[in-house]
Write a structure and sequence with these properties.
two-stranded antiparallel sheet; 4 strands; mainly beta; binds FE2/S2 (inorganic) cluster; two-stranded antiparallel ribbon
């Protein structure tokens, strides 16, 4: 598996708290999208840390094609 799996063709809103770390699933296999559940083991992919700078809701990438990982950049519209 070299290319990530397209988990969803839309971003996933995630409420985050300032100062906390979140692990974004980069492989697309997690059952807890868009966050990592360890399913990447054995693949070439690793989760990406996202540190929240404020308490808000962020739109994390669900298709795994974004160029601004882990935030959605609209790439899912071209799939
Ligand atoms: Fe996808 Fe961990 S489950 S990166």
């Amino acid at each position: 598996m070299t290319s990530p799996v397209i988990a969803r063709k839309e971003p996933v809103p995630v409420p985050v708290e300032a100062g906390k770390d979140y692990w974004w699933c980069a492989c697309g296999l997690s059952k807890k999208q868009p966050l990592c559940d360890g399913s990447h083991k054995g693949t070439a992919h690793e989760p990406m840390a996202y540190k929240a700078t404020e308490t808000t809701t962020v739109e994390l990438c669900g298709c795994k094609q974004t160029a601004t990982k882990p935030i959605c950049d609209g790439s899912h519209e071209n799939l």
